[in-house]
Amino acid sequence: MKKKSKTAGFVIALVVVSLLYLLFIELSKNTVFGWILTACVIAGAVLVRHYFLARDKWGRGKCALLWLAFLASLTLIYFISVPPVRRVRVAEGYRAVKTGKVTVSEGDITGVYSKDGKVEIYAGIPYAKPPVGELRWKEPQAPDKYDGVRVCDTYGPMAMQVVQSPLIETLYDLFGYRRFKISPFDNYRKEASEDCLYLNVFTPAERSGESLPVIFFIHGGSLTTGKSYHTEYRGESLAKKGVVFVNFAYRLGVFGYYANSELAAESENGTTGDYGLLDQIAALRWVHENIAAFGGDPDNITIAGESAGSSSVNALCVSPLTEGLFVRAIGESSSIVAKKPYHTFRTASSALDTGKKIMKEFGVEDIAGLRGVPAEKLVKTKYANSAMMIDGYAITEQPYLTYKKGNNHETALLNGFNAKEGDAFLLNYNATEENYISLLKPIAGRFAGELAALVPAGSITRDQKFIIDAGGPAKGALCEAYSAAWFTYSHYLWSNYVAGQDKPVYEYYFTKSNKSLSNFHAGEMPYAYGNLWSNPSVYTKEDYELSEIMQSYWVNFAKTGDPNGEGLPRWEPVTGENKQVIEFNTEIKMREDPYRKIYEILDKYQNE
Questions:
Q1: Active site residue 267
Q2: Which one from 114, 228, 307, 386 is the annotated catalytic residue?
Q3: Which CATH class, in words, describes the domain spanning 85-411?
Q4: Which fold has domain 417-607?
């Protein structure tokens, strides 16, 4: 009886430890080989234990040795089953069917069909040469010609960035997006590389021959993170609705927005600091020249983006290099049109000063030395490179000045923001009644007290999903004020500038809650681009109905510049008389912008 009791206790402990370990390696995306080895080690431990018990040779010493050997084996298994680095294939989890050949400027390519066969996907098409070696911190160069037929069934790598461990990434998905599934197809780490200048095209498999509108999407991520193939803005759903959808990668962080006077001197255009923006322009130019081969209309391109991608859309609207390359713009949750932009924009002097600090950080004296620093080391710089600047080439003046002159390029604008834009960015802030005004000074300057009086400490409560309990009694009010300044104020300005030019402007306010990103920053994307399918367990029938309506608005706007259509709630344009926005929730209706009084205070700060 005693022997059986010992055996049962050992087996229970072994099972508990083994299950926790298997959960750990699954969260870490270790390979299936790790699971197989773990099963073998568990079986081996049970057999060894049984062998010694059967011969009455079991004791504390052997028990300790067996546990030590077992845990050492699990540690070894973890390291020998670490997920490999590779690029993401389009056909993850289904058998790919190849498309016919398409001819682009560089040669012939093939793609693959979506799982349901309704969309042709061409992934990883080079739109510029790899910006490596001597091409690091140079304007993007035209891509090389192809030999034979290039197979475009795999997305290009994400731009070089600090990549979280698979465990951290999985936990972020689990607790942020509420998204997790056990799959044999995701046991790998996604590649990040300087060699990142690739784009993806999603086009309907059945086309009537009539040229289709094009949406050219720029991903966000504070100009330091992000990837072209994120499921929140994949293009299958919009392609099924008659749009050719394009997304792509561009240089980020120190590789995309590093500024240095030596680099400006070696450039024939005298430019530095906006290499990622120049990549976006190169991608847009490639699309304008080649999209007809995919059924798209080069004269009906709408540029779209979210967060830093929306700031980039705003930059493309004022860049002298993009005239004639697109007709309309969609901006979600950011722009750089304020006189003192809060987000993704900095002065040239600040950018150049940061550039000098980075050279000193890596102990080099010139650009040749900095180009010699390995990308894996350089990406870990402690200095942020998360903003554009006036470089005299891609951006020639403060964007608001271009809008005041009427020299911006968009002929129509759809833009807007979410209910809780700033909350997730303020996680580590502790806001109390004592420090509240000082925390408002970065966005309101000497008008911080007036802003605090308008949005008093303790007057706003927030969903605690993204707000830690130690956030303090003024945390909700702080989030409200920062949401308005960082993200929504710029849309108020953008809408007014374009409406003042007698161009169609449509502004939204997304407030729909759910179990994923809800109405926080980026929460609208899976709705607008039709990607609720990627995380179905957190959405309800109401979410899918709203997504269908938002997709229709986006597609109609891309087709004609007017989001309205048959069966859709009427979306009134912003005009001199009408400043209302449309609210996206279970009920869709026109309403006043909830931040208008905050804007009046921010106007004072911006205009002083």
A1: no
A2: 307
A3: alpha beta
A4: Rossmann fold (3.40.50)
